[in-house]
Amino acid sequence: MVNKINLRDKVSSIDSLFTYLRVGKLNDHMLNVLKAENRTLDFHTHENSDEMFYCIEGEFDIEFHDGLTHLCEGDFIIIPKGTKHRPVCKSLVKCLLIEVEGTLNNSNTGGAYTK
């Protein structure tokens, strides 16, 4: 059976900040939702994979060495592999991350992601 998923319901079911909840898999890509607030990660790159952020609720920035891109509800951004970036979340944000399986790790999530 094929099931539908409501992203707002799934991300709202997360009890604590910085907890990645896998909501699906698309070929070799994992789809995770999370809540974040008052957090700026270190600059990092993903050498082998593009990364997509979709803003479900709230707003946040993706910082690059040459500036910021601001995302609001309904916006998404695809960060090409090898691009140095970091998420900057000042207020509560709920988002969906799509990336190749194995891209997320403890060092590029500020210690928040564990398998």
**Derived structural class:** mainly beta
For the sheet with most strands, the description reads: 5 strands, antiparallel
In CATH, the homologous superfamily goes by the name Jelly Rolls
Q: What radius of gyration results from the CA coordinates?
A: 13 Å
**If classified by CATH, what would the architecture be?**
Sandwich
Protein name: Cupin domain-containing protein
Pfam families: Cupin_2
Domain Cupin type-2: 42-98
Can you give a write-up of this model?
With 115 residues, the protein is mainly beta. 5% of the residues lie in helices and 44% in strands. The protein has one helix at residues 7-12; strands spanning 21-26, 29-36, 39-40, 51-57, 59-64, 67-72, 76-79, 86-89, 93-100. The model has no long low-confidence stretch (mean pLDDT 89).
Task: Give the key terms.
mainly beta; 5-stranded antiparallel β-sheet; 4-stranded antiparallel β-sheet; globular; single chain; 5% helix; Jelly Rolls; 1 helix; 115 residues; 9 strands
Describe the secondary-structure layout:
Layout: H1 7-12, E1 21-26, E2 29-36, E3 39-40, E4 51-57, E5 59-64, E6 67-72, E7 76-79, E8 86-89, E9 93-100
Antiparallel strand pairs: 1-2, 2-9, 3-8, 4-7, 4-9, 5-6, 5-8
Compose a concise summary of this entry.
InterPro entries: Cupin_2, PKS_Associated_Protein, RmlC-like_jellyroll, RmlC_Cupin_sf. This protein has 115 residues and is mainly beta.
